[in-house]
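Students often ask what a holo structure prediction actually looks like on paper. The answer is less mysterious than it sounds. You provide the chain, you provide the ligand, and the output is a string of discrete structure tokens encoding the 3D arrangement of the protein together with zinc ion.
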Amino acid sequence: MKDDNCIFCKIANGEIPSKTIFEDEKFRVILDLGPATKGHALILPKDHYANIYELPEKTAADVFVLAKRMAADMTDKLGCDGFNVVQNNGEAAGQTVFHFHMHLIPRYDNDGQKIGWKPSEPSQEELEEIRAQIAD
Ligand code: AMP
Ligand code: ZN
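The corresponding structure tokens follow.
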């Protein structure tokens, strides 16, 4: 399950070199080339899935277990003060490479980065309408 036109398929499977910090039979974890902070890394499945919608549930579970282990190990080794786990799906959500990946972003006190959103202020009625739209 590889896509010949996908750069992350080539990186994940070792056809293009990368700064690899972890590898097993299913995943490769590499340093991001445009890091938000020191140690910013990406978990790449070796199989091609464009996004979370295509990701099999078993792979999704494995990704998060690996993210947890990497967070502990990287925090230990880098001495970071916090940690963001970020995952974008679709252009509207900021995805730029369409091979599923999970960002591991070590955070440091006063690192000057901002990962977040501008909060809005919906009414209780608006929240209820949305709740009813989503909940079964
Ligand atoms: P996203 O915007 O969630 O799709 O994230 C794509 C990420 O991949 C960005 O943080 C880029 O800096 C990073 N990136 C793009 N190409 C490469 C590459 N060849 N090696 C490592 N990181 C890359
Ligand atoms: Zn791919």
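The chain has three helices and five strands.
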